[in-house]
Amino acid sequence: MTEIRTPRLLLRRWHDDDLAPMADIDADPRVMRWIDDGSVRDLEHTAEAVERWEEEWDEEGFGLFAVELLASGELAGCVGLSVPEFLPQALPAVAISWRFGPQFWGQGYASEAAHATLEFALQDRGLDRVISISQVGDEASENIMRKLGMEWDCETAHPVYGRPLRIHAIDLTEYQA
Length: 177
Known about the structure:
Number of helices: 5
Strand order of the largest sheet: 1-2-3-4-5
Shape: globular
Oligomer: single chain
Distance between the termini: 23 Å
Strand content: 25-35%
Order of helices and strands: EEHHHEEEHEHEE
Helix content: 25-40%
Largest sheet: 5 strands, antiparallel
Number of strands: 8
Radius of gyration: 15 Å
């Protein structure tokens, strides 16, 4: 089982008891504002997403981690790698993404988890380039991308929802952990 420990976090595969807290995160309009069309998701949709993430682990050797706070055992959200199949013009690519509950915002958890995920991408999976996709206006995500050393690559639009997207990228051969 793939696990990564940081000073404050455990990045791990998903457990059944993660579904309810992740569904609470997905049901928050503040969290979902910048994802797809901005709609909140219910428990069933969250369970389907976690199932897809776990399938990607099996098929690709990477996926989205559940992010647990070491101090409390709480599920704070998710972070990880995926193939952005919804955006054909970005392919072939592996994208890093994250999603945290609002009570965990502003504490550096997303940056800490994302840094560990980039190290995993380079050292454990041998990837040489990773992208990240954000909707135009999502300054919090773009701030994390800058902290990771990612640079603006291009702009495009979501092929289904039409929302403007920005793609940032990092060459991991130059990444300084």
